[in-house]
Amino acid sequence: MLFLQYPKCSTCRKAKKWLDEHNIEYESRHIIEDNPQAAEIKEWWDKSDLPLKRFFNTSGMKYRELKLKDKLPDMDDEEQFDLLATDGMLVKRPILVGDDFVLVGFKVKEWEETLL
User: Fold this and answer.
1) Which of 1, 13, 58, 85 has the greatest number of C-beta atoms within 10 Å?
2) Distances (CA, A) of 61 to 52, 58, 89, 110
3) Alpha-carbon span 36 to 74, nearest angstrom
């Protein structure tokens, strides 16, 4: 599994701790230093059954700076994938990518249902 995280993010640290406590193996990737590419995000979105907006860090400063709340509704999917690929701070985290699932954000119940 691929675990995309930002080490300074408290939610990411909680998710990492949870994975470690449950002896779940994963490859860790720093979402800022190794930002997801548009094609990766599209693949994860296709696998996730989530609305594309869930992949945006809507509480982040960058999201607010760019006034994306107003702009996203007028953007098509490809534009949104490309935008997410420009800056890891725009991407909701953590993201856990498995062979047949993608978890966006850390919700213990959802992770338990998927992984345990």
Assistant:
1) 85
2) 19, 8, 8, 26
3) 23
The domain of 46 spans 2-115
Residue 114 sits at the vertex; the CA angle it makes with 106 and 31, to the nearest 5 degrees, is: 40
Angle between helices 77-84 and 38-48 (to 10 degrees): 120
The answer to whether 115 touches 69, Cβ cutoff 8 Å, is no
CA–CA dist 82, 41 (Å, integer) = 9
Residue 31 is classified by DSSP as: T
Domain count, the chain: 1
What does the block give as tokens for 17?
């701790």
**Residues 13-35 pLDDT 10s:** 999 999 999 999 999 999 999 99
Q: What is the CATH number of the domain that holds 105?
A: 3.40.30.10
- Tell me the pLDDT tens digit for each residue of 41-89: 999 999 999 999 999 999 999 999 999 999 999 999 999 999 999 999 9
